[in-house]
Amino acid sequence: MKERLKKSLKAILPIVLGAFVLYFVYRDYDFSRIGEVLHYEVSWDWMVVSLLFGVMSHVFRGLRWKQTLQPLGEHPQTANCVDAIFISYAANLIIPRMGELTRCAVLNKTDGVNFSKALGTVVTERIIDGVCILLISALTFVLQMPVFVRFFHETGTKIPSVGHLVASPWFYVSLFSVVGASILLFYIIKVFGLPKKLRALLLGIWQGVLSVRQVANPPKFVAYTILIWLCYLLHFYFTFFCFDFSANLGLLAGLVMFVGGTFAVIVPTPNGAGPWHFAVITMMMLYGVESTDAATFALIVHAIQTLLVIVLGVWGWLRVSTGRSHRCQ
Fold it and tell me: How much is the pTM?
């Protein structure tokens, strides 16, 4: 009963959180505006271009994942890797962060890929993605610093100084707690050891983490990584041209909103619903877009991009479940 309740809360709480933020953002919005914009104002040609880059970002991620698995002696078919990526993003809509486990399970089913090794490569991916977004954010912050400063000021966000952080007693309480827990965990492992299955799982994950050091073609790995993030950016940026009020915002504005939206989706709601809308609307208004237009943009773009994730997830699931993906190279 407790396990069932825990699983239910994992699925329900992100939805409730997202719904609460959406209500806060759109509580005064006239939703009749959506139908009018969709029917008369959206440039669907540009929307299709945007969605194509969304698909390609998943394809390049699948290709890169296959490359990191090969040094571990795992050789899944390319189509299966891509379908697993499609399914993983759709799974995240149900339970945030569930996709990482789901895609490993898919490849285990289709190609017999060791689950723990696959999970280790996913951990490596997340580390690399974290470095990439930090580099992109740093570059964007330097190029558009006044915009970020205004965003922090208008949203009431305060960035504490290092001196203030170090002077806080809670910093030392947290530090000592982490150090103490680490020492205790090390002592328990040293005295009692690890269960055999857990040891094998951790070893597999560690091998997966180190796999990036042994990829056969490092320049290709770097190229895939650049293409993934370039596709993410263009997937968002080309939606500007779908609306008259955002068509002239420019690439730098796209970078700013892309970075803000990327950090917003860290909040565990389905596809970042709520926090993503808040970040994009606020930043779009800093560039002179009316609040109603910014809200319309965020609602339509997020809904269509989420629909793409669902369609690709269903497509990947159908191919895997019917065995069609297995026969493709």
Answer: 0.80
